[in-house]
Design a protein that fits this description.
The chain has about 575 residues and is mainly α. The protein has a 5-stranded mixed sheet with strand order 1-2-3-4-5, with helices on both faces. β4, α5 and β5 form a beta-alpha-beta unit. α9 packs parallel to α11 and α10 runs antiparallel to α11. The longest helix is centred in the middle third of the chain and has 29 residues. The two termini are about 45 Å apart.
Length: about 575
């Protein structure tokens, strides 16, 4: 295990990776971290500062300068700002006299060079000579290399009583099986489930569990990145975030030290998940969305079913990433207008990439499973938050094309959307000429009422009428339905621990557009449990999207509520400048 951790540490970059792990490790060791890595501010050589006692010694101040990988001759005393020796000089000349908190100035100070790898032999003599010349009085130096960090991580995060031998075995198996993403992911899910089983545990145990989840996810990501296969890391990142939230939701406030530490640990898990998602999208998906059949051929499938399943899965992932960017933009205040615009630009790039991917891969014009409406809904939700006619034009093309193909496939006993879920059953779908089979595999639908709702929302009259006609002509036997969280959803949605939610049936696609929108709004108003979900109450609503995508739950229509209300309400007269009111946001 120590070798696994050391290899992981050696692969980490300095910014956003190694410096993200070190503060949690120091906190777990009992130190009080008073300075964390910051971007855009002068650090004076100090990446992380902490104070406390290690190994029973007197309380000391520990000032860390962090370098990724091995410490080489080039990184020891090069001309760049990241060289170690100039950083050590800055700490002594600038940070200690001017930046060190006054309450710590009477304590012994230890300057630590922290690297994920080792100090190479050609630098060893220079390092030791530097230390012998500068260490005096209350000032000393320490080397925190990959071996020491791995040992501390193993003893502090992965203690026997907190991560038993079988759990460590799960982590090893997950890393060993990265070339088989599904098997690797199954092992990691078992690991995360064991770590997040914190019923009856203390606050300290819960905090440690969150930090362990973060660390294990980092290790998996580092190995997956080096292995060139991020699939297991992506799926595991979703599970880690959801299980991490199941712990963090118990601490909604940030008034105490424990609550702030829990929040910081959750942010670490979220940051890792978002880093994995960004890496996956920018390297595996986005460069290929414009290539005709590019992503379809990349699936390397044995049959068309594999292409269909994978492309709709990627569609849901892209929509989720775009919604996180939109959420990030909403977190920016008026003083962060430039940052908000950057997040909105990223969101826009995802919407454009979704359009390009659909246009380049015709498989996305006809789902084979009805529950692929979940991925379609996530993409449509992202497009709904756009405020331009381009979004409307795309939806006006995509949804009618999809409905037309689905209608033709059903009428001709082709590959029409069905409620089957098992891969072996889908391989045999459809059974041509078997009318009873066709009725059985289309007894319920989320796809068609979703299309009808967006047709009503965007005033696509022909599409709305086409869904109504399809219902009357072919789907009298089929229950059109939506899904809403219920009183048990808060307990089960983050871990998928049991069935939950309510399903209003007989959605009124045969009524008028206004009546359908009113029906949905009435259900949203009567089903207030969505707004009581902790992720929604605490402003982290994209976590619900992640849960829906990962556990295959329909996207709650409450996320569209403000847009539907604006549609249901007669538009007010325009102001004198002729500018209509802006589209509401979540």
């Amino acid at each position: 295990m120590k070798l696994i951790i050391k290899e992981y540490l050696a692969s980490l970059k300095e910014r956003g990776e190694l410096d993200a792990i070190l503060p949690d490790l120091l906190s777990q060791l009992g130190l009080n971290v008073f300075s964390r890595p910051a971007r855009g501010t002068r650090q004076n050589g100090v990446d992380v500062g902490a104070v406390g006692s290690l190994d029973g010694q007197p309380e000391k101040v520990y000032l860390f300068t962090i370098k990724p990988g091995d410490l080489t001759r080039a990184s020891w005393n090069a001309d760049g700002p990241q060289a170690v020796r100039p950083s050590l000089d800055e700490i002594q000349d600038a940070y200690i006299p001017n930046r060190l908190p006054s309450e710590h100035r009477d304590k012994d100070i230890v300057i630590c060079v922290c690297c994920g790898g080792d100090i190479q032999e050609q630098v060893r003599e220079q390092w030791e000579g530097y230390v012998s010349q500068r260490a005096a009085g209350k000032l000393s130096f320490q080397e925190w290399n990959g071996d020491r960090l791995a040992e501390l991580i193993q003893s502090s995060f992965l203690r026997e009583d907190l991560l038993p031998a079988n759990s460590r075995s799960m982590l090893r198996k997950s890393l060993a099986l990265l070339d088989e993403p599904e098997a690797s992911h199954r092992q990691f899910v078992r690991l995360i489930a064991s770590l997040s089983a914190i019923e009856g545990k203390s606050d300290a145990d819960r905090l440690t569990a969150l930090r362990q989840i973060s660390l294990c996810l980092w290790i998996l990501f580092a190995w997956a990145r080096d292995n060139g296969n991020l699939e297991s890391a992506y799926l595991s990142g979703e599970v880690a975030l959801l299980h991490g939230w199941s712990i963090a939701r118990m601490y909604p406030e940030r008034s105490s030290k424990t609550e702030r530490a829990v929040h910081a640990a959750l942010v670490s898990v979220l940051s890792t998940y978002q880093l994995i998602a960004t890496e996956y999208m920018t390297k595996n998906i986005l460069p290929h969305v414009e290539k005709q059949h590019g992503l379809s051929s990349a699936v390397r499938a044995s049959c068309g079913l594999d292409v269909n399943l994978k492309l709709f899965d990627v569609l849901g992932r892209m929509g989720t990433a775009g919604l996180w960017s939109y959420w990030s933009a909403l977190q920016c205040d008026d003083e962060q207008a430039e940052l908000r615009q950057r997040f909105l630009d990223v969101m826009r790039s995802y919407t454009m990439s979704i359009r390009q991917m659909i246009e380049s891969n015709p498989a996305l014009l006809l789902p084979i499973k009805d529950d692929q409406a979940i991925d379609i809904s996530i993409a449509l939700l992202l497009w709904s938050f756009c405020e331009d006619e381009e979004a409307r034009g795309f939806i006006e093309w995509w949804l009618p094309e999809m409905l037309g193909r689905a209608s033709f496939a059903y009428a001709s006993h082709g590959l029409y959307p069905c409620t089957l879920d098992r891969y072996s059953d889908l391989l045999e779908h459809p059974k041509k000429g078997d009318e009873e089979y066709r009725r059985n595999v289309t007894q319920g639908s989320l796809l068609y009422p979703t299309i009808s709702l967006y047709a009503a929302l965007y005033d696509i009259d022909e599409l709305f009428q086409a869904v109504s006609d399809l219902k009357k002509e072919h789907f009298q036997h089929c229950t059109f339905q939506f899904w809403f969280p219920d009183e048990t959803s808060e307990v089960h949605i983050y871990k998928d621990s049991d069935g939950h939610g309510a399903v209003p049936t007989h959605v009124g696609v045969e009524r008028t557009k206004g009546e359908l929108i009113k029906e949905v709004l009435d259900e949203c108003e009567q089903s207030a449990h969505f707004k009581k979900l902790s992720a929604v109450e605490q402003g982290m609503w994209p976590i619900v999207i992640v849960a829906c995508r990962h556990y295959r739950l329909p996207v709650p229509l409450h996320l569209l509520e403000s847009i539907l209300k604006a549609k249901a309400t007669p538009p007010p007269e325009q102001d004198g400048d002729g500018v209509p009111p802006a589209r509401p946001s979540v």
